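<instruction>
Derive structure tokens from the sequence
<entry> Chain with its tokenised backbone below:
===
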Amino acid sequence: MPDARLEPVQRSPLYEQVAERVRAFIEASGLAPGDKLMSERGLAEQLGVSRTSVRQALTALRVQGLVEIKHGEGVFLMEAPRELIPRLTSGIVESEVDHPMIWEVREAVEVQAARLAARRRQDADLAAMEAALSAMEQSIDAGGDGIEGDRGFHAALAQAARNPLLHDLIGQMRDVFDRTSAASLTHAGRPQVSLASHRAILDAVARGDEPAAAEEMRRHIVRSAQLVVAYES
């Protein structure tokens, strides 16, 4: 009989789910900065959760700079969700691929994404990452650079992290990150090395080994950067 086992179902904390629902509500309702959200009690009743979970979610949104909590007055919107990240990343997106700032930011966010993916990945995430690497391998075998598979792998990894803000942040910077990957993959022999690095990341994520996943991603980013720009690891 094959040696098989069921993987535990990974669930994000309840407050993160509540925070994502509130973000979606803000976007759908057209609230503007300065507008007041419904009360903590009202949110709890509509979402069917405890006021404690709502309070934790609002605290997370406050830390993200999305809302302001005024005791005795209520919760007020500070930034529209889709305006917050572009404002933070506009300078990065306009930079060239050989600017050290881009690689430093990419290392920071994608290393953390790999760490969280190892903690929270689900079977569908692993399948998506494996499919992306298969596409990357096929492209390389055919003489291509594998950039589409590379893009798919990093997108699937960001999804597996199960952190809406991190996912949005990476999504907003995806174009410039793709340009850094393309610049790296033009170097002779790099596509094959990059594929091996991606497989090492996937293996660590599949094992649920957070430190290894983070370290493999860090090595991948640093090695890529060293081909494009003088970069201190």
User: Anything to note?
Assistant: The longest strand covers residues 67-70. The mean pLDDT is 84. The domain at 14-79 is CATH 1.10.10.10 (Arc Repressor Mutant, subunit A). The chain is about 70% helix and 5% strand.
